[in-house]
Amino acid sequence: MARVCPEDEARLQAMLRQLFRSVKERITGAPSLECAEEVLLRLEETDDNFHNYEFVKYLRQHICNTLGSMIEEEMEKCTSDQNRGEEPGYDTVVQQVTRRVQDSREYKEMMHSLKAVMTAAVEYMSNRFEEEEETRCPEQQKRSHREQSSSYCTDNCSDSDSSFTQSYKFCPGKLQLIVDQLDLRQPKEVRHEALQTLCSAPPSDVLNCEDWTTLCERLAASLSEPDPVFSDRILKFSAQTFTLLPLHMTKEIYASLARHLELYFLSRENHIPTLSAGVDVTHPNVSCLLKKVRLLSEYQREVPSFWIRHPEKYMEEIVESTLALLSVRPDPSHLVSLKILDPVYFFALVDTKAVWFQKWMHAYYSRTIVLKLLEKKYKSLVTAAVQQCVQYLELCETMKADEILGHSRHGGDKQKALCYSGQEMQYVYFIHSLCLLGRLLIYTQGRRLFPVKLKNRKDSVSLTDLLVLFTQLIYCSPSCPKTTLDISSEDYSPASMVMEILQTLCDQKECAIECLYNSTVMGTLLQPILNLLRGTEATPDCSEMALIYAADVLGRVAAVEEGLAFLLYGENTSSSKEESVPGAHVIAQFTKKLLDEEISIFPGSALWPEVQGAFVSVCSQLCSTCEGLQTLLPYSLHEAITRAWRKTRLLSERTPAPVLGSHSVSSESQGPRNVSLPVPSASGSQESRGVPNVASTKQTAAAGRGREPHTHLCGQALAGTLGTKQVLSSGTKVSSQNVSNTKSDEFQSSYIPRMAWEENLLDNLLNFAATPKGLLLLQRTGVINECVTFMSSQYAKSLQVSRWKKVDYGVLVTQVASTAAGAVALRDSGFIRVLVAGLWSSLECGGDDARVTHPKPTPVDPIDRSCQKAFLTLVSLLTAPAAYELLGLQDLPNRAEYSLREVPLCVTDIIDRLIILNSEAKIHSLFNYEQSHIFGLRLLSVMCCALDTLLLLEAQYQVSRVLLQAQEANISEAPSSHRGFIIDGLSVERNHILVRMNVIGGPSERILPPRTLEEGDDPYPWPMFSSYPLPHCYVSKATRNSDIKQDGDLGKLLSCFTVSDKQSEWIENCRSQFCKMMKAKRDAISGAALGELLEKFVLHLTENPSECYFPLVEYTATDADVKNESLSTVQQLGVRMAVRYGRLLSLLKDGAETDLALVLKHCDRFLKLQQAPVKSSLFCLQGASAGHDGFDWFASSLFLLLGGDPERTLRCLLRFSRLLASAFLWPSRLRCSRYLPVDTVESGLSPVYFCSAHCTEMLLKTEVPLVFSAFHMSGFAASQICLQWITQCFWNYMDWIEICHYIATCIFLGPDYQVYICVAIFKHLQQEILQHTQAQDLQVFLKEEALRGFRVSDYFEYMATLEQQYRPALLRDMRSVRAQSS
């Protein structure tokens, strides 16, 4: 390789020349030789064309030719060694091969030859460089010689000069000479020249300085020179070192500068401004001082980005130097009126929001050191900050706002604009202290610095005291009229600064619990609101913005579980003070009065609608939870919000829409467009603004972000003085981009258009739909359609529903779809139309942006991931109530021809196009027939798990007949010994659904065939069928041979009914015996004996008037009176299904269908006597006895339990109807009942949903929080699956014996046990629920899977503990379902 022919040498030189020309600009722009080398070393990372250079290609090819074979051999060796396990360790194959190749002889020879060739090429190019330049451009060479000669004699101290020539001209020993010349004993001229030479020294030579420490000391000593030239030169050199030198050198410069300032402030000889005189930026001494402070401030903000790469002692030295400087307090020997400003005042002036402290506290690495030093040595810094906040609050409390404003009304000429009074400096320091303390409170170790002891104050300031102070600042700090404020000035108002702190504290759970969730702090926040409720003044300076800020804090508190509990119930103390009223009640009362316009302390205020909206949002946040709604139910907030919405809607309809382009705006709309005082542009030079310029450093641009315009440096009160003044703007323009993007910015508009106010109210009403009882209240208001329409529009725009806590759309859709009226609202709002169209697009059309060259991969899962979300939404949407509303009396199109461009738009179309494919036209209309049909069959499988939906589909569409015909068409005609069915994904899915639809039973009573194939010769051993009856293998043998014998102890329990004790004692004794038997011999409580037991217990309960909840209704109809009445098709199918299940359990005999039908006819006749006439468009309310809302599963269960005896069943049902438990165990009991409020009847909601399911969700949050969180993460609601379980009496989910135990437990122990059983089920399923939440199929799992392994008796002790804790509240809630007048 070392011997290269002339042609290859010329080609190599051309390659190098191309490379140098491409990177010429990068190299010449480097400040030093080392930086240029770094540019070349990192060229591959920074240059996109790196691999296109011919020289790089040449090197790659050469390495491949020389070492390629050896690399392959080494890789094979490493792979084989690892397979044998000979070389375990952390090294990868690449690392091992690299190390071996670099150690090889071939690699060393290649590098030696490459070096020789490259050296020769570079030397040749260097020798030819001057000749080529002379030949190409003689004039350029002359000009270059002139510039080179002048550079030796002229020093312009420019930071941008190239360092290549400088590095060669600066001799090695010159630095030592400069150090000697900077000695203070040297003449001034010598030191001046040495300093000038040092500023022009290249960083590479400074880096190699052996006397660096001595140099730093002498530079710091020179800073005390009265000549400003010395100071400027030293600061310029310091800025360069901060930018270019490593931390171990810059920290010495920083420490020396900090020590210099420390001594400067401690000295009595220096001219330091006093508090009474203020700060004049134009004064030479002050200007020089601010330059030094600003340079240190910039370094403070930049150093955290790289000090983690260096030893901890360097960082500790920087931190301690800073804290020592900020803790300096000048000698207090002067008079109090001539108080000298501390260093912290000047640092606050250049970094008002303490950005440096925020960055230092961000990482644990540095935060630990800062907090340790603050605790051990520099706690006075924290004490001084607290003192400053206390003093400002005292000033606000003692002085009136107009007096403070009067103080600030002085001249606004340019000279005054460059001077800052003592009040302004105090305010700057106050803001700095506020930000520092706010950042300190976030961390546990920072909160441990409290309490602190202040001067002239007996008691120490605790953490609670500090938070109370912050809260008082929201209300007490003076506020300037909106007409005099620029939008950017709000960043520095005390209220907005405190809001930022409190918002940050609310976001930190541990911090919020320790700081905010106590009665003292929250009482201070709510005190002005309490005063307004009592009709007194809130505070002398309480403004609308203060109330909005308070509402924002309360909303953030309510968005967290711990904060919600605190607002609802207060602290867990035994205090009985009047002030200990939970905050939620205060907020609700205030909000209701706001909406009813009973509070008007700010008449005509443009911000008043925002105050209303803020507090309404807090209340809706509280009411979006079960416990919050339960607590605030007496205030009827939903009605107040609805009245406000109707009033606003009426005004909007009366007000004409504004004409586009019209300039006439009402006075109300002109509120937010007030003209603010002109703010001087900050685009001018810093010297013209009175801000001392330090140096052009790399940190300047980044540090500029921390120097926002200070147009509000003494609060709103000093706006008159500071309206034309900014501090250290650093070239930053005053624009909306410079305004801090805080959460409170959403409140800054002073006018809410009526349309926005309408949407705000609908948004808050929609939060009620997050819980079952809240949805009942929402339907009672009559605006459910408007709310669902608003939700649909927000969903289409992917916008958040709630202001503070994101409410999942899935949860809202699940709750709304669990009701008939909600399903209709979803349909009318277009939500279902959009959902179905989007599903069809994903299922049949594919993505619009899919490239033709990128074909869509063949889906492996039965439901493709692109359709999973739509599938789960449909599963949550198509509940039994929704199915009856969306599908009731709806025929399928069944057209002879379907266009390929025709898109389904409703649920009926989905069933027609994806599920019931009973024609060739439907099959040919699908692009992805198998995938789309499997999607439909999976959806059908989940829908059929709700037995009422199954009966509806069978009655209207004969789904099972269609599936059997499809199986018949799937039989192979080829002669073989096989069963004849073609086994594919569709036939396996159809077989599973047919078994699920026709075999009723719990987890051990029926066997569902799997949906997957097995390995081996027989991949699907389960028999398929195309006609009835089903093969016996799908029915458990234990079910077919069930024969339960009566236990002797059960006979003893029956005998206790003959004892004539006191009624109450007898009931308690019977319940106690039942509990003992359930725990000891659960299997004995079953069969005919259990039926007799329930029958007698219900009889004795109805004989006790205190146990009867509903009045007695005389029923005299005979069998002959009802025999001629007809049952609906749904009811007839339900009768056949129930009788089939009874025969499967060997509980019924021949003729049971007629008997059960007779019982149902009597029930319909009996319940009609108690029904009220209802006029409604809902399908479920159009005929209460027409089977429009499903089948009576409880009556069927009792029929089976009593051995199929119709007389005993009817007699027991008539007696049971008087008990409170009948309202929840027997859903048909209160259908259109006159015992319910009229608006509840018109809503079509069952007490099972808005009471039992609601209470289950409420207990679930406390008892099984992981499951509760899993439901919300899945976008699903526990209430929906509870409603399905209870409505069909747990058929297909529990074995028959567990269904009997469920009914017996709720009758014997009380209806609240229905809630406890549901909670126990979720506790039993916790692990599986968490797993399926992660798999994103929780809805499907809960609806399709039976409750395997769950036994009611196993959770009796757990349910007893729930009873002790929750029974009073639950029974009170259950008893409240009945109308007050009945």
Automatic annotation (TrEMBL):
Residues 135-148 have a biased composition (Basic and acidic residues). It is found in: Cell projection, Cilium; Cytoplasm. Residues 174-675, 736-925 form the BROMI middle region domain. It comes from the Eukaryota. GO terms for cellular component: cilium; cytoplasm. InterPro entries: BROMI_C, BROMI_M, BROMI_N, PHAF1/BROMI, Rab-GAP_TBC_sf. Required for high-level Shh responses in the developing neural tube. Together with CDK20, controls the structure of the primary cilium by coordinating assembly of the ciliary membrane and axoneme, allowing GLI2 to be properly activated in response to Shh signaling. PANTHER family: PROTEIN BROAD-MINDED, UPF0183 PROTEIN. This is Protein broad-minded. It comes from Cavia porcellus (Guinea pig). The lineage of its organism: Eukaryota, Metazoa, Chordata, Craniata, Vertebrata. The gene is TBC1D32.
